[in-house]
Amino acid sequence: MDVPCVAVARESGEAARSALAAADALDDDHEIAVEDGRLYIPITDAEAAADAVAVLDGDTEMTTHDLPVRQGVRTPADILGFEPSVERIGDIVVIDEDDPDRAATIAEAVIDADLPARSVLNRASKIKGELRVRDWEVVAVDDDAAADSELSPTETVHREYGHEFCLDLAAVYFSPRLATERHRVVEQIDPGEQVLDMFAGVGPFAIPAASRGADVVAVDLNETAVDYCRENARRNGVANAVTAIAGDVRDVADDYHGWADRLVMNLPHSANEFVATAVDLAGEECVLHYYDIQHEDDPFGPGIEAIKAAAEPEYAVTVETEHVVRSYAPHELNVCLDVRLTAAHR
């Protein structure tokens, strides 16, 4: 299972481990892994971990990695005799099982294992509708953990790179699998930038961007997601830097014409329908992070064509990065284009 960790050069490993232990940020439930000359050290608190390793020499990265559970900790696999496919979002464990008996068996093992889980949800539908939500079946709840929480079985607080996001999976879209990609984009942001997230959800791009010193506008069609975005901005201490707006970004564009230094377009199935709006929002110089899902034979071409068709000749279009985020389906890739738009009269 992917868990939060710090990646460091092998020669810095002991210093990093000691610093994390001193900060009480070392995860003792998972083993340290070595891959390509780097150590992946599991952590419990990303913010404390980042502070702990900030003073170390050499390259360090906050990331996630598939790390084995430390021996002596009973896992669902120990109980079941096989490794179930699970995903953790905060203290919720998500499974995807068509057989209700198998789902119940896995959920019971998750609750009985030593790793914390307040509830187990089974995906009951595909993502659907304009709001990009799905149906869920609550398969199991840890009664002791639930008694200590005011949240429903589908609500949780998910922590990612030093930020925390309250959300309800039954009402909003959220994917923890994009944590590393979100961090990649946020690390490019400079203080003072004007950033507009066109499909912001509960704020996993917007709030870290504000923490970098950006002035952020976060737009989403899902009013519940926008409510969570405002709450998450408050709980992460950036409420004054985030303007969260419920509505279609095409209806918001007139109020922010030419405003953005950076645009995030994470709506990969239909982002091409919003490129003209993105161009309208772009300032004199603007970086566009355009997410797409395309066939592996030409994963970047359609997006580049769509952006150029909407932006030229008013803007010069420079593709700075062609980045594969992940495999989405057989022969289909989820990709990101980092594109710089520069007003042609400059």
UniProtKB/TrEMBL annotation:
It holds the Pfam family TRM5-TYW2_MTfase. GO terms for molecular function: tRNA methyltransferase activity. One of its GO terms (biological process) is tRNA N1-guanine methylation. Residues 86-343 form the SAM-dependent methyltransferase TRM5/TYW2-type domain. SUPFAM superfamilies: S-adenosyl-L-methionine-dependent methyltransferases. GO terms for cellular component: cytoplasm. CDD domains: AdoMet_MTases (cd02440). Keywords: Cytoplasm, Methyltransferase, S-adenosyl-L-methionine, Transferase, tRNA processing. InterPro entries: MeTrfase_TRM5/TYW2, SAM-dependent_MTases_sf, TRM5-TYW2-like_MTfase, Trm5a/b_N. This is SAM-dependent methyltransferase.
